[in-house]
Amino acid sequence: MHVLFVLVVLAHHHRRRVLHFNVTEHPTAAWTGQQIADAFPDDSAPSYLLRDRDRAYGHAFRQRVKGMRIREVLTAPHRPWQNPFAERLIGSIRRECLDHVLVLSERHLRRILTCYFAYYHRARTHLALQKDTPDGRPIEPPEIGRVVGIPEVGGLHHRYVRRAA
Fold first, then answer.
1. 5-136 belongs to which homologous superfamily?
2. Nearest CA to 120 among 14, 23, 17?
3. Which of 95, 122, 155, 164 could form a disulfide with 145 if both were Cys (CB 3.0 to 4.6 A apart)?
């Protein structure tokens, strides 16, 4: 059995969109630094990055972030409530997805999370977004047709749309 680590980059101001994620068995500072570079290509880097004090954010990571002109904001030690959006997302991923599947490998976990994040962005409603999704959904009047469930995340969840009969 192997322990796998997931790094998630979440944009707070863009309807809580997951901008980037990746999976590894060995999270190093160089790996996490590369993930930030992958998450923000060209000149798309944010002005600041809120993160915890995990060892994976070592010297190589800090140098990469500094080179991208991103200011780091650190949470206090052992205070997950200081980053509630990330903590909420992690809890949702566990409760709504990973607690219900057996992960076989890094590749398998990446595929599961790709499906889950597609569902999270276009079908999973959020109370803070007035029961909308991060991608937004059109209002479908009853005249369009009956409600049909479309399986998502391997049938673990469903997206509901109206379809003509």
1. Ribonuclease H-like superfamily/Ribonuclease H (3.30.420.10)
2. 17
3. 164
